[in-house]
Structure formats: structure tokens, C-alpha cells
Amino acid sequence: MNRMNGCHDSQADSYDKQVLADPGDYIRENYFGILDRVAELIPVGRSLRILDIGIGTGLLTERMPQKMDLYGIDISPKMMDKIREKGLPVQLKVGSFLDIPFPDSHFDRIVSTFAFHHLTPEEKEKAYAEMHRVLKPDGFIIIGDFMFESEAQADRLSQRFRSEGRTDMLEEFEEECFTYIDSATASLSRLGYNVCYERGSTLSWIIRATSTNSQKHDGRGDRT
Fold first, then answer.
1. Residue pair 50/68 in contact by the 8 Å Cβ criterion
2. Beta strands in the chain (DSSP E)
3. What pLDDT digit, counting tens, does each position of 171-193 carry?
């Protein structure tokens, strides 16, 4: 985690500009549209306590209703310094998917965008359990990130990129740990969640895991 921390610290000053570059390419395709959609899926409520994991420079937070109690954690203090410079009304702490520095059943909602792919499959399993720990029984989790719907879809994309000569994208698949939605669904189901998902771009999806104890959300826009 120290190596990753240093990497993100070094990107803090330029990160917002980086995500604006090449908006039509696969990695940045519909990037801000996905942020908007994740924010849209969070119902407004003054009493809701929301945690953004891997909050970065606050690009998602900027889009979230500011009538709620907003919290954010990140492994990079310098990234979070950018949030403070923006004056966003969010309470910040150093933390990660694997170490959320809050007590049990503390949050109504957990959100995250473009951070979960940094975790290995084994770390993802630990992250699901850690998010479950700090989430209230009627809460839900929304993750927008690079994902594959299944092994078959990953194979189709690999074939596509080979035919396009996109060795850079094939290297991304090797270097990063894209979430497999079918695997995530199985893991979260074991913890007591119903999982819905929708596609955001060629490489990006949004999954929402709703506690089976929750009947609060209308589910619009989801697909199974």
C-alpha cells in the first residue's frame, strides 16, 4: 500500500487534468457520465451518512447532493488536500477498502468510483466484508469501475483489442484487476445483498449491492 500511496500522491496535482484527457478513449470513455450516474443513484436525505472510498480529488463528491453527511477516505493524503482546497463539505480520513477507520454499522451508503480495480481478487473479498461491517443493515453499496460482466465478455474484449492492435489495452488487463461482476455478485450475495448492474462504457460498469433488509430504493435504471 505504501507504493500505491506514493504513486497517487505524485498524481495529485495533475489528476483532474489527466481525466479530462482523451475522453473518447477506452479508459476515459464516459468517465464523467459514470460519476454523474453514481451520484444520481444516491437518494437525497439530510440524515443520510455517505462514505466515498478512494475519494481521490473529490470528482464524485462534487456531484453528490451536499445535504447529506459526506465522508471520504483515501490512501493518498495529497489527493485529499485537493478536496480541502476545493472547499468541499466532506469529512476526510486516511483509509482504504481494507481498513475503513469507522465503527460498525456507521454508514447508510457506500460509494466508490475508479478505485476498486487496484485490489487483487483476494483483497476484493476482504473489501466486501469490510464495507459490510461499516454499513447499516438497510444500506447499499455503489461501485463504478472497470469491470467484466463475465470471463466470456473479458475474452471478447481481448479479441477485440488484439484485432485493433491495442496492445496498451491488453497490458491494462494484465496490470490491473478488473472486477468480474459474476464473481462480485456471488460474494456480495453471500453477505446478504441483492446485486444489480448497468454498463457505463466499453470497460466500465456500475454495480449496486442492496441489503436484503432494505426496501428503500426504487431500483430505476438497474438491470440484472
1. yes
2. 49-53, 69-74, 90-94, 107-113, 135-148, 179-180, 193-199, 204-211
3. 999 999 999 999 999 999 999 99
